[in-house]
Design goal:
By secondary structure, the chain is α+β, with helices and mostly antiparallel strands. About 45% of the residues lie in helices and about 20% in strands. Strand 2 and strand 3 form a beta hairpin.
């Protein structure tokens, strides 16, 4: 399926207003800046020779682009670099992307195909691979699994602490510690475990909670007070965090390699605001296409001046299940990062479809 990018509808009109010469010079400045991280001077472009223009002619065009708000000069005598508005114009209408390389595809495929672990682990490994390839932090928003219960084990650690082990029908295995309000005997633990596996196996957590409440209310559960309380505590330990999405963040160490350590520190702090990050990524989900956020376009990353490239992924029925993406400085190599994120989203879609 062809890559779909949600663009700013105003970008096409802004590009159309530029002369051919201005478009070429602007694109060259942005591409050089993204490659080097340094402001680009008119002499640099003139020496490259591809434009066939003098440094003075190039300076005049650069001045026009600066007046349009597309370029800025960090110092009076320095060259120019794109503004956030200029970067938006570039990624929406001038950027030329190529498919991921064979090595990039292989790196993501290797993690997505790894056997013997839960779906959440596979998502985390795939996200880690994406982080390594992009040299940025990478995130994935995954739906909380609604797999049915295959088996529930209750292992006494003390008279008031129980280890609850849940095995899902999808093969996932998770542990929770249950802190009890009062001591209970081992026989009660065994009775609760027997009831849960006999009456609740094959149900989702939500279904199991409803059945338990119904059977206790009608007297069909035939459990004493302590046993019924333990079963309720056991289910509560799993249903407490079962409704919301799972946010996985990998590769934040890549951000510390930035030359601007203060900006990197701000970005790390912003990543801690997980509720706001989830809201931001949900915009990519709503766009139904790969979406690029640049700097102050988002309130979350306005201080650090960071960029986000995110794409939704789907389940076997075609329904959007979550979002995967990368977060880094605005000076991303967008032309390289965008197709990698797009491929990761399509690969996770196949993973969720349980190929």
């Amino acid at each position: 399926m062809a890559m779909q990018i949600a663009n700013d509808p105003g970008s096409a009109g802004a590009i159309a207003q530029l002369t051919e010469r201005a478009r070429i010079i602007f694109r060259d400045i942005v591409e050089t800046y993204l490659a080097t991280g340094e402001p680009v001077g008119s002499r640099t472009l003139a020496k490259a020779g591809g434009l066939g223009l003098s440094a003075a002619s190039i300076r005049n065009v650069m001045q026009d682009l600066e007046e349009l708000g597309l370029l800025t000069a960090p110092h009076t005598s320095a060259g120019r670099m794109p503004t956030e508005r200029g970067l938006r114009l570039f990624v929406d209408g001038m950027m030329q992307v190529s498919p991921p390389t064979e090595a990039e595809i292989a790196a993501i495929e290797a993690e997505a195909r790894a056997q013997g672990s839960s779906l959440e682990d596979a998502l985390a490994r795939t996200t880690s691979a994406l982080s390594g390839l992009a040299r940025c932090a990478a995130v994935v928003v995954a739906p909380k699994s609604e797999a049915a219960i295959r088996q529930l084990s209750l292992v006494p650690l003390s008279s008031t602490r129980i280890l609850s082990v849940l095995v899902g029908t999808d093969g996932t295995v998770e542990n929770r510690i249950i802190e009890l309000p009062e001591p209970i005997p081992a026989s009660t633990v065994a009775e609760a475990e027997t009831y849960m596996n006999a009456r609740l196996s094959g149900l989702t957590l939500a279904e199991a909670s409803r059945r338990l409440a119904s059977e206790i209310a009608s007297g069909r559960a035939e459990l004493d007070r302590l046993t019924a309380g333990l079963v309720q505590e056991g289910l509560a330990a799993w249903t407490h965090d079962a409704s919301g999405p799972v946010l996985i963040v990998r590769g934040t160490s890549h951000l510390l390699g930035s030359a601007d350590l203060e900006r990197a520190r701000l970005l790390l702090e912003e990543l801690e605001a997980k509720e706001q990050l989830l809201k931001l990524l949900d915009e990519a989900r709503a766009a139904d296409a790969l979406k690029i956020f640049i700097g102050a376009e988002t309130r979350l990353f306005a201080l650090s001046g960071s960029a986000v490239v995110a794409a939704p992924y789907r389940g076997a029925d075609g329904r959007i299940l979550g979002v995967v993406g990368v977060i880094g400085p605005t000076r991303l190599n967008y032309a390289r990062v965008v197709p990698i994120v797009d491929f990761a989203a399509s690969r996770i879609s196949r993973l969720m479809g349980q190929e």
